[in-house]
## 1
Amino acid sequence: MSIALGTETPSFELPGVDGDDHSLGDYGDAKLLALVQYCNHCPYVLAWEGRLMALASDHADQGVRVVAVNSNDSARYPEDSFERMKERAEELDFPFDYLFDASQSLARALGAERTPEVFLFDEQRRLRYHGAIDDSRDENAVSRSYLREAIDALLAGEEPPVAETESVGCTVKWK
Amino acid sequence: MIELLYWEGCPSHPEAKALLEQVLAELGRDDQIVMTEVRSDEEAERLRFPGSPTIRVDGRDIDAMGASGRPSLTCRIYHLPDGRISPVPSREQMEAALR
């Protein structure tokens, strides 16, 4: 079961595709922190990938940090290995950090269930939005951009118009 | 025979089945769709199941390119005619396989 709205960000220290380890404290200057349960192999992730990249780029100057986290069992799903993560990030020039949660500890702490699945934390690192990036995997059919709306609202000092939605995607591949 | 093989861990098969039924109706066909749930890695291996959903018409995968993928309990990747990635086959792929 996923963490409840208002819950503090779980601490973590995970290797990133950039070669550095990244901890929660490294994002201390971010106004908003979006942890996105992510992976390489899932068609739902791939369908939303361009939109997540655009969102990360669009808000980077406003102190919003997007961090993708792959917690899948890469022994059973080799496409999700750390090496393949590095390749994917380099190929697409991800505008966000991409971290490997090999022990699955962060996914368990978040109660993550799907990829992609968004956990958006405010400046006090309390969960303010949880769920889908928007309301359709088909970019031509999107009518509500939940994550973008939540970010814009929080940056304006307001409540997210929708705080929780159902994540549609692949299951997290537990060991 | 039209088979739709699926894995419950992937949410795409109801959408694929609905689209397949729609395409069949539009083509004036009344074939039954044989639904087969794949429950384990062993079944995936035995059924040569490269991901969910997999649709076969008379034993032939409607997406030849993806048919040879490693058998696995996973969501299958399809490419739409405009290049976008999708968890379900395109209408065009279904139509081509059923004509």
## 2
Amino acid sequence: MESPMTIHPASREQRSMKTIVSVALSVIFMGLGQLYNRQIVKGLMLALIEAYVLIFWSKPIMNGIWGLVTLGEQVQIRQRGRIVEQGDHSIFMMVEGIIYLLALLVIICFYIFNIGDAYKVRKRMEEGISVRSARQSVKYAWEKGYAYFLLTPAIVFTLFLTILPLLFGVLIAFTNYSGPNYLPPKHLVDWVGFKTFSNLFNLRAWSHTFYGVVGWTLLWAVLATVTTYFTGLFYALMINVKRIRFKRFWRTVYILPWAIPAFVTILIFRNFFNAQFGPLNEYLSLFGIAAIPWLSDPFWAKASLVFVNTWLGFPFWMALMSGVLTSIDKDMYEAAEVDGASPWQRFRTITFPLVLFATAPLLIMSFAGNLNNFNIIYLFTEGGPVNIDYSYAGSTDILISWIFKLTLQQNQFNTASVISILIFIIIAIFSIWNFRQTRAFKEEEMIQ
Amino acid sequence: MKTISGNHKVSIRQSWRENVLLTVIYMILAGTAIVVLYPVVWVILGSMNPGDTISSTTYLPERLTLSHYVSLFEEKDYLIWYKNTLFIAFMNMIISTVLVVTAAYAFSRFRFPGRKQGLMVMLVLQMFPSFMGMIAIYILLLQMNLLDNHWGLILVYAGGSIPFGAWLVKGYFDGLPRSLEEAAKIDGASHTSIFFRIMIPLSVPMLTFIAVSNFIGPWMDFIFARLVLRSNDNKTLAVGLFEMVTGRANNEFTTFAAGAVLVAIPITILFLFLQKYIIEGLKAGANKG
């Protein structure tokens, strides 16, 4: 075991020379700099790690990256229907390539840490501060590294289950991975650059569907957000009227749509709106109204979607706004009344601004959420009714449910991935804007 | 004199107008209550209607029967689906909460190289549509032999819950006063004991929100359950019920209704009990940053 040692201060040139040497040594081989700094145990450990990586990992890493770059070269060969040569599976190679690339990044980070460490230790030695022994280093690392220890599980999960799949998803956009001609293991997949992007905008078969679906997605997000928000506000206001009794009862009843699992209610409504057997058309026929094709006509399907969404979504806003309304200072209303403000004016100048102020961040998040509200679209209409003008999309499909169909039913992976990148850009703009707004809100609160 | 009687008249007219307004409000409230409760009652009655299809579901059935509930358990794999969902939900709740809380503690109370970048990465990750990585997850699970396996699904859920949850809980931890920890540190408490003795007890409301939302998540999720789980024995409730009413024939409506009632009851009760925490948690989620 080494012991902490003190180094006599040396002349300036000697110092900088020694620093350069220790850094240069660490660059050449991990741990050399530490050995030069007379941290024997640490240096040996680091050198061992590098040797281990070089011996056992360099080949797989090289192979992985080769696979990622070429996406395989050997096509599957069949003779008389039997597979003679298995061939390269481009997609597996891609995923493996990304994993090895991530591993390489971790190793590079570690390498940089090693160089930085050699530099820092040398600096400390020159300033005459005692250098930590191996045992002290371990203790120091435990103290300092506790945060990393805590984070390790989360990092591993996020890396493999979120970041890796997303990287993969992004990369797919730049390949021709799609049915029927580029599906492994039968065929190879190739990098095609931005071709899929330009196809989406320029090829009529894609662009027509794309613009149509984008239009409905935006309209849907606006309608879904506005209807739930104002319906919620409307009921919160009514329940909050001073002389209304059984407030708790009303609130509990109205919260039910939020409390019942949404997928259950959506499936129930799907049957309720069923044009042939559903009770809704039956009731209408009692009033002499002819059956309405709720789910098979584009307009009615969209209208019923908005209705069902309002039913599902207004309780959240109602509950939230009830809280805001009860916390508004009553004096403000009295003052306004003395000044002769009408109820509408009081609402417009006091209630609404305060409610909006308190709920704005959630309103924006809910808009972003509605853009991607897959569940209601897929469970209620499955994107239908069929639209013959669209490629692989129905009349009520929003971008996200279109992606779902493209991936799971049509094998159009590359186009699906391009669309998800576009969605990401839209959502990112909203989120960043929202993030900034909340900052602004907080600062404003502090000023008041 | 004149002014007093004038005022009197105004107040009478006002109270009359107010009464009309109140009546209108009560009528709207009652009407909406019917709209809200109608589907609920319809399904409960449907589940007890004799017959199989929606068309045979009348609002005033001649007699009520529990046979659909019985057949759920005897003919369908409902009990297996229920057990599957319960298992996945419970495991996801535990794993996600542990992952989220440890990460949030590290981000909130330690300053270390990479902290800022880590927080930014998590913020960005929240913005991606969750199933953009679907194909890759499918391949990964396939290679790890976790396809059509509950643990595969649990891993996917737990991994997905980290970015949002960690930000939320980190924000909450940031708001807790540090004086207690500093006092404990002076008394020689370790990071671990500070975490368990101080942070956890102080953040029960937020932990409840995280745990409950992770428990409820798998009951609602449809996409990943459908992607990962293939065989009938492994299905979750959402997938099983969806398939009951979307087949061509659509002749199992009443059995579906019975199944829906049995899912909705526990989740609804859980929700109503914890709604206070849920609303608080969502508010905090929107104000993070």
